[in-house]
Automatic annotation (TrEMBL):
Protein's organism: Facklamia miroungae
Enzyme Commission no: 2.1.2.9
Family membership noted in the UniProt record: Belongs to the Fmt family.
Keywords: Protein biosynthesis, Transferase
Gene Ontology terms: cellular component: cytosol
Catalytic activity: L-methionyl-tRNA(fMet) + (6R)-10-formyltetrahydrofolate = N-formyl-L-methionyl-tRNA(fMet) + (6S)-5,6,7,8-tetrahydrofolate + H(+)
SUPFAM superfamilies: FMT C-terminal domain-like (SSF50486), Formyltransferase (SSF53328)
Organism ancestry: Bacteria, Bacillati, Bacillota, Bacilli, Lactobacillales
Domain of life: Bacteria
Residue span, Formyl transferase C-terminal domain: 206-311
Name of the protein this chain belongs to: Methionyl-tRNA formyltransferase
Molecular function GO terms recorded: methionyl-tRNA formyltransferase activity
Gene3D superfamilies linked: Formyl transferase, C-terminal domain, Formyl transferase, N-terminal domain
InterPro entries: Fmt (IPR005794), Formyl_trans_C (IPR005793), Formyl_trans_C_sf (IPR037022), Formyl_transf_N (IPR002376), Formyl_transf_N_sf (IPR036477), Formyl_transferase-like_C_sf (IPR011034), GART_AS (IPR001555), Met-tRNA-FMT_C (IPR044135)
């Protein structure tokens, strides 16, 4: 039985861990995950999905604030593991630990490397309009996501996918790819391929200012932005100086002829029309966003048809969404 140290944090990693636990030929001897974090408005201290999975399986758990130099790090070095497997762990792993297991360390990464190295590959794949993404299993080296590619699996990105849905899809793909690959890896029946450096791109952690919608962009670009940040970290825009959120919308090149458009002039970011289920926002490049799910400032998200029951259309037409830089 091969002894494995698993390192990961979010639901993506928990799905992969559950798959490993179910295999009789592997023993997960330790799980390393991020410390419990305050979550929600009440800031309730919450365990990561990986920790919850490990607790259910009675696997020893390690949660150092900083892995390098910690007591946990020293203990992990002495475990005589056969392999370290990481999946969205969230910390840099010291080289000595990567080399400690007899079969080194491998990573399950949610992109088709060398595209989108970094911590937000699924967000960027949608945001940048990629038609496909996938899972890469690679050898781990000290430089982030730069190790040799061991195997990959590809899936399409639909125009309905958001980051939450794509995370779920890729977690299943990653679990299946890993479990199919591990026997070959332990037997040495694989070929490692160096990453092509000229093809490298990055997906750094999302910054707060990147959550704002830019209405000068096309409706298609805005739709990708919304889906790439849904359900986390979410996008926002300003209305009457307050932050509001658009959760669901459809990009349009033109409006139906029967939709009334009372404004003589239309500017990007302006609400120009409504119907029973949407309000329509003028965007850049002469395009339109049909918004169907909306969250007013300080309130819960709701369907636009419900929002319009309490907010007459004439109070919306001509209103202008903006950004904090304006």
């Amino acid at each position: 039985m091969k002894k494995i140290i698993f390192m990961g944090t979010p639901p993506f990693a928990a799905t992969i861990l559950k798959g490993l636990i179910q295999q009789v030929e592997y023993e997960v001897i330790a799980v390393v995950t991020q410390p419990d974090r305050p979550v929600g408005r009440k800031k309730i201290l919450t365990a990561s999905p990986v920790k919850k999975t490990a607790l259910e399986a009675n696997i020893p758990i390690y949660q150092p604030d900083h892995l390098a130099g910690s007591k946990d790090y020293e203990m992990l070095l002495q475990m005589q593991a056969d392999l370290i497997i990481t999946a969205a762990y969230g910390q840099k792993i010291p080289q000595n630990l990567l080399l400690a297991p007899s079969h080194g360390a491998i990573n399950v990464h949610a992109s088709l490397l060398p595209k989108y190295r970094g911590g937000a590959p699924i967000h960027y794949a949608i945001w940048r309009g990629e038609k496909e993404t996938g899972i890469t299993i690679m050898k781990m080296v000290e430089e982030m996501d730069a190790g040799d590619i061991l195997t990959q699996s590809t899936i399409p990105i639909s125009d309905k996918d958001d980051v939450g849905l794509l995370f779920e899809k890729l977690a299943v793909v990653g679990k299946e790819l890993l479990l199919n690959f591990l026997p070959k890896y332990f037997d040495g029946e694989y070929q490692a391929s160096p990453q092509e450096e000229s093809q490298v791109s990055y997906s750094p952690t999302i910054k707060k200012q990147e959550e704002q919608l830019d209405w000068q962009q096309s409706a298609q670009a805005l739709d990708r932005h919304i889906r790439a940040f849904r359900p986390f970290p979410t996008t926002y825009t300003l209305l009457d100086g307050q932050r509001v959120k658009i959760w669901q919308a459809q990009p349009l090149v033109k409006l139906d002829a029967d939709i009334e458009r009372p404004l003589a002039m239309e500017k990007p970011g302006q609400i120009i029309a409504t119907d029973n289920h949407h309000f329509y926002v003028r965007c850049g490049e002469d395009s339109y966003l049909a918004v169907s799910e909306y969250q007013p400032a300080g309130k819960k998200r709701l369907m636009v048809e419900d929002y319009l029951k309490g907010t007459p259309a004439e109070h919306l037409i001509g209103k202008h969404f903006g950004t904090e830089k304006e």
